[in-house]
Amino acid sequence: MIRINLLPYREARRARQNQIFAAGLMAVLILAGFFYYGVYEIFSYRAAVQEQRVQYLQGVAQGLDKQIASIVDLRKERDQLLSREGIITDLQGKRDLTVRIFNTLATITPPGIFLTHLQQQGNTVAVDGYSQANNQVAEFMRNIEASTTFDKPLLNIISKAKLGNEEVGQFSLQMDIRAPVSATKSNGQSSKGIRP
Questions:
Q1: pLDDT tens sequence across 171-186
Q2: Is Membrane given among the entry's keywords (predicted)?
Q3: At the topology level of CATH, where does 96-179 sit?
């Protein structure tokens, strides 16, 4: 027997193709959704990793800022300590200055010179006195120049005067005080080789 299909097969085939197309489209949309979701997750993960790195670097930068601030504070403290050390060293060098001045003057003053007045202003010492002869004043100035305590003697006044019944020369001179020798140099030299 022959079977004849009287149903509209074209509409059925079209409906089936529409279903297959719809299913394919749905599958493509689902795959595209998964793909875009995967791409979104990858970029989100990378952004989170970059955010963590940025936070880490910000933490390191803040730590370095604190260290830099502490270094600046340490440098200020170091400068203050060096300043104090300089003041202490200066005071240490000048501590025995008066003793050195008098000791050196006693050593370098030749016989026949009598000192009557001594005045110190800063690094300059002014001396007044009497001499029996002018060549003694010249010898006194040579001794001043050769000493390690004084430098640059300058004769201000020399004149004749009477001291009791004797005629003497009256003089006034000034000299500079030399900077003290540093402790390391003075420790390395023997005291015998140092002149007053």
A1: 888 888 876 655 434 4
A2: yes
A3: Gyrase A; domain 2 (3.30.1360)
| Residue 36: per-residue pLDDT | 92
Q: Which two tokens stand for residue 32?
A: 């595209």
Global pTM value:
0.45
What is the rounded distance in angstroms from the CA atom of residue 94 to the CA atom of residue 180? 8
Predicted pLDDT of residue 1: 67
Domain boundary assignment for the chain: 9-95, 96-179
Which tokens hold the place of 196?
């007053």
User: What pLDDT was estimated at residue 32?
Assistant: 92
